[in-house]
């Protein structure tokens, strides 16, 4: 029998001769605040960039590209402030192969403890013919002159042959030789259009390293876009071909289909470390929080099925999977979500869930059912799952209350009224019924918006110490009778509670979701206390 304390994934991993200490260290270059911000609609204010840069440093990023200094006064200011504040991270000044760009990047980063100049110039024939309107010889000469000019100010120069994956191999080698001769220390071979296949991309690195004069004297970087969904695969191919730096963005944001996703690349390396033979310095426990911060700042929602950080990434509806997970997490998970800072919520209740999962979820709230009650609940549950697909905890608790004819929820929202207008504060009135006394009380409150007014009312009624952390609103249908789904997250003692509700009235849905989250917190605390008492 397998020892349950041993991770089966590790057992199955092929053994390498090299010890972990000999693994290649991959530097993570984050361009969320530059290339990521180029996503349509993802613009950041300078103060937002500062906040995110601090989090990127906390995440363990090696190199941060905070913006494009010459593009705007705001970007210049952001790069300058990040350079002054974050003294333990290398800061990049991004510039075209133009003197004015270089001057701006040099000035913006002059206070950095460690800095780098990042120059880029197109190398593909289609870019030369239609964008630059210059010959190959002219482009090589520009590259030489601008690297030499930049070298007067900084020691570390990264040169990017833009659209390298669609460029002639011999010309890429010629450009690389030219910039190395002038002092470039890092060569970036970008897959600017996300066009390359992994084997093609890896071979380009091998070829340039081998055939360019001085090719083995510099470091190599990969910058991949995701137009064909291959950005992470291509980046891994580059690592295997000798690249020691990978350029990424949080949540994979970026122009068009985005860039290589930081969290996907890092966890691919971390999970298959012994096969890839590489490691990073990323603090994985900060991945989830960083992802949420970027999503909120840029108003870019994260796809439910997004690897690593998507809502469904560590959730399981299948009854077979749920049963295996409850017995041993490693049966259906290759990563530990809690190690990534992700709240543990591996069981999602849907029509494929089994009675074991229902019983386990209710036990977490201190609710115990006998076999007859559990069977009756399961029948109700399946009907509800057919109707709403996924059954959130608050609905499950409500079904348990109906099954046992006992109110398990500490509080129930009985009535809600909101007065809104353009010239005054919003006023709300909420009636709440308390479980133990069965008394109904009405509370009033005001706010700048109707939801804020409602939340103020509920906070008077329900004595919880949790922080109202997040509200998500999703449209589930169209037309005048469209329904909205509200999801409220609360944080208490580093534990998250989520309430969900669906209604035609989105304010009512949000109120019900908030009450549900409060109830979950109270039931969770009550259950923890009972378990502690029994243990004593």
TrEMBL record:
Residues 1-21 are annotated as: Disordered. GO terms for molecular function: 2-isopropylmalate synthase activity; metal ion binding. It comes from the Bacteria. Pathway: Amino-acid biosynthesis; L-leucine biosynthesis; L-leucine from 3-methyl-2-oxobutanoate: step 1/4. Residues 26-288 form the Pyruvate carboxyltransferase domain. Keywords: Amino-acid biosynthesis, Branched-chain amino acid biosynthesis, Leucine biosynthesis, Manganese, Metal-binding, Transferase. The keyword Cell cycle does not apply. Pfam families: HCS_D2, HMGL-like, LeuA_dimer. It is an enzyme of class 2 (transferase). PROSITE patterns: AIPM_HOMOCIT_SYNTH_1, PYR_CT. Its EC number is 2.3.3.13. InterPro entries: 2-IPM_HCS-like (IPR050073), 2-isopropylmalate_synth_dimer (IPR013709), AIPM/Hcit_synth_CS (IPR002034), Aldolase_TIM (IPR013785), LeuA/HCS_post-cat (IPR054691), LeuA_allosteric_dom_sf (IPR036230), LeuA_bact_synth (IPR005671), PYR_CT (IPR000891). Signal peptide: none annotated. GO terms for biological process: L-leucine biosynthetic process. The keyword Manganese applies. Residues 7-20 have a biased composition (Low complexity). PANTHER family: 2-ISOPROPYLMALATE SYNTHASE 1, CHLOROPLASTIC-RELATED, HOMOCITRATE SYNTHASE-RELATED. Belongs to the alpha-IPM synthase/homocitrate synthase family. LeuA type 1 subfamily. This is 2-isopropylmalate synthase. The gene is leuA.
């Amino acid at each position: 029998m397998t020892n349950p304390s041993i991770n089966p994934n590790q057992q199955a991993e092929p053994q390498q001769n090299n010890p972990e200490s000999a693994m290649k260290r991959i530097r993570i270059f984050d361009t969320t605040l530059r290339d990521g911000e180029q996503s349509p609609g993802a613009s950041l204010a300078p103060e937002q960039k500062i906040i995110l840069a601090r989090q990127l440093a906390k995440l363990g990023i090696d190199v941060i590209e905070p913006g494009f200094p010459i593009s705007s006064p705001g970007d210049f200011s952001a790069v300058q402030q990040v350079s002054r504040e974050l003294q333990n991270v290398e800061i990049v000044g991004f510039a075209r192969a133009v003197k004015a760009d270089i001057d701006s990047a040099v000035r913006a980063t002059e206070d950095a403890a460690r800095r780098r100049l990042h120059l880029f110039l197109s190398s593909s024939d289609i870019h030369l013919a239609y964008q630059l309107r210059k010959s190959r010889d002219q482009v090589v000469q520009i590259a030489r002159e601008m690297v030499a000019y930049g070298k007067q100010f900084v020691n570390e120069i990264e040169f990017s042959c833009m659209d390298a994956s669609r460029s002639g191999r011999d010309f890429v080698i010629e450009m690389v030789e030219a910039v190395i001769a002038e002092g470039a220390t890092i060569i970036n071979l970008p897959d600017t259009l996300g066009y390359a296949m992994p084997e093609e991309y890896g071979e380009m690195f091998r070829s340039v390293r081998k055939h360019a004069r001085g090719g083995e004297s510099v470091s190599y970087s990969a910058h991949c876009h995701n137009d064909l969904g291959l950005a992470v695969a291509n980046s891994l191919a580059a690592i295997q071909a000798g690249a020691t730096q990978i350029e990424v963005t949080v949540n994979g944001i970026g122009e068009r289909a985005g860039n290589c996703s930081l969290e996907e690349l890092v966890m691919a390396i971390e999970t298959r470390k012994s096969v890839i033979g590489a490691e990073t310095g990323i603090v994985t426990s900060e991945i989830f929080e960083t992802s949420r911060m970027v999503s909120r700042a840029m108003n870019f929602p994260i796809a439910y099925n997004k690897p690593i950080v998507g809502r469904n990434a560590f959730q399981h509806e299948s009854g077979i999977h749920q049963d295996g997970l409850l017995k041993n997490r490693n049966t259906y998970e290759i990563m530990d979500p809690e190690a990534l800072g992700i709240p543990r919520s591996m069981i999602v209740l849907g029509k494929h869930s089994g009675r074991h999962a229902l019983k386990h979820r209710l036990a977490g709230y201190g609710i115990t059912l006998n076999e007859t009650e559990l069977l009756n609940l399961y029948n109700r549950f399946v009907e509800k799952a057919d109707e709403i697909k996924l059954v959130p905890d608050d609905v499950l608790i409500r079904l348990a209350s109906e099954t046992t004819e006992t109110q398990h929820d500490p509080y129930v929202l009985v009535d809600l009224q909101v007065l809104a207008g353009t010239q005054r504060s919003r006023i709300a009135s909420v009636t709440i019924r308390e479980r133990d006394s069965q008394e109904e009380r009405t509370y009033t409150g005001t706010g700048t918006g109707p939801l804020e007014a409602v939340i103020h009312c509920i906070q008077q009624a329900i004595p919880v110490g949790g922080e109202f952390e997040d509200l998500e609103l999703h449209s589930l249908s169209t037309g005048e009778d469209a329904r909205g789904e509200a999801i409220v997250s609360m944080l208490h003692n580093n534990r998250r509670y989520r309430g969900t509700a669906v209604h035609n009235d989105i304010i009512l849905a949000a109120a019900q979701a908030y009450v549900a989250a409060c109830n979950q917190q109270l039931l969770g605390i009550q259950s923890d206390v009972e378990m502690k008492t029994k243990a004593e």
